[in-house]
Amino acid sequence: MTSARPLREIRSVRGAAARRSGRRAEALAAAWLMLKGYRILGFRLATRAGEIDILAQRGRVLAVVEVKSRTSLEAALEAVSFEQRMRLRRAGALAAASRVGLKGVAVRLDLLALSPGRPPRHVPDAWPDDGRAWA
């Protein structure tokens, strides 16, 4: 009699696949942003407030880019909760304050949505302030 794979092993395999898929999505998103004239300052940046998928700059704008791979733009926009957006805003403010040469830049929260069979969709200022100021 054969036993089923332990749940822990199944979760580990799924988690590894999700991480690989996420890294591919972030690499594609970064390439798309560079084609649009952005300079990539970092990937998966850890701050005290949270992790930033991509930190990019174009001119005097610092974009905190959240990358989501979903079946539609609407699903990607909805996949980022209010709490996550607040963490990303705080992380972006910390990143801007801690980097030389970024004083006085406008920090913005962008979404880069990826859907199968479609070109990437960059949404600058995807959640304009959520009715609150940057922390």
TrEMBL record:
Pfam families the record matches: UPF0102
InterPro entries tied to this protein: Restrct_endonuc-II-like, tRNA_endonuc-like_dom_sf, UPF0102_YraN-like
Record-stated family: Belongs to the UPF0102 family.
Name listed for the protein in its UniProt record: UPF0102 protein I4Q42_25180
Native source species: Caulobacter hibisci
Classification lineage: Bacteria, Pseudomonadati, Pseudomonadota, Alphaproteobacteria, Caulobacterales
